[in-house]
Write a structure and sequence with these properties.
alpha/beta, 8-stranded parallel beta barrel, 12 helices, 48% helix
Length: 286
């Protein structure tokens, strides 16, 4: 009898592993949001969006008194959607690199932002901040890179304290002269080497830099967040019907289960939000 049971289980193994492979090939992000004001949450919810990505300055207001942040928390309490991520992190006047690097001020600013983010239920802080991290003309790129890594390591420790994940956002060369690809960002994240300082893949910036979707697979273990917009005019997905399927297939291949935020230039928010959702879902499932 034991021999029969053993044969039965062995016979089922190919079926089991075949089913696992099917599930893996169909992995897709479970949540789609929009980089916008919290006030748009009700409109977004109607079309299946599950979260809002706000701005650090407006939503977390690190430079404002606690009383003003309490008002924002009351707005959040009345919103049908949560705020799960915030972008536009470090103000341009606080330099991450160069002779005017202000690491002490940045870390003070970051601690307030992370503490408030935890209170608001925010999980992810996007570190794009091209104005802060651009390397000044004539300044050593090697030294600037070392400065940024030093800042990242210190910032990660603060983020850990408040259970926040920082995600480094590569920006195209028209917006910033430092960290312009997922591969460059991935190598920096590796050197920072902290689970609270990870990587963002922005499909718009990848398209602008002609970066291969294969890069997503190579650095997949580091990617915790994704932004999306069409290359032409940084338009909302569906505007010019650009093809994101090679990038989506790469995300599936590396087993990505995180969020996708639309970070685009909206022409008419109310009429475009259903088209954007339909476009993303259709291409994810093809």
């Amino acid at each position: 009898m034991k021999h029969i049971k053993h044969c039965f289980y062995v016979a089922l193994l190919p079926v089991f592993f075949s089913a696992c492979n099917v599930v893996k090939s169909e992995l897709k992000p479970t949540q789609i949001g929009i980089c916008t004001n919290l006030a748009n949450g009700e409109k977004m919810q109607q079309y299946g969006y599950t979260y809002v990505e706000e701005g650090v300055s407006r939503f977390l207001a690190p430079t404002k008194p606690e009383e003003e942040f309490e008002i924002i928390l009351n707005e959040l309490a009345n919103s049908p959607l949560p705020v799960k991520a915030c972008n536009s992190f470090i103000p341009g006047n606080l330099k991450s690199v160069g002779n005017e690097a202000a690491h002490h001020d940045i870390l003070t600013f970051a601690e307030t932002a992370f503490r408030r983010a935890q209170r608001a239920g925010v999980e992810i802080i996007v570190f794009g901040s091209g104005g802060s991290r651009s390397i000044p003309e004539g300044f050593s790129r090697k030294k600037g890179r070392a400065q940024f890594i030093e800042l990242g390591k210190k910032m990660a420790l603060i983020a850990q304290k408040f259970n926040i994940i920082i995600v480094l956002e590569p920006l195209n060369t028209t917006e910033c002269n430092f960290i312009n690809s997922v591969s460059e960002g991935g190598e920096i994240v590796k050197e920072i080497n902290h689970r609270h300082f990870m990587l963002l893949a922005d499909l718009y910036h990848m398209k602008m830099e002609n970066e291969s979707p294969d890069t997503l697979v190579k650095y997949g273990k580091l990617i915790r967040h994704v932004h999306i917009a069409e290359k032409q005019d940084r338009a909302v997905p569906g505007t010019y019907d650009e093809d994101f399927r090679p990038y989506f297939n790469a995300l599936k291949k590396m087993g990505y289960r995180g969020k996708i935020s639309i970070e685009a230039r909206w022409i008419d928010f109310d009429t475009q939000i259903p088209t954007a959702m339909e476009t993303i879902k259709r291409q994810l499932n093809n």
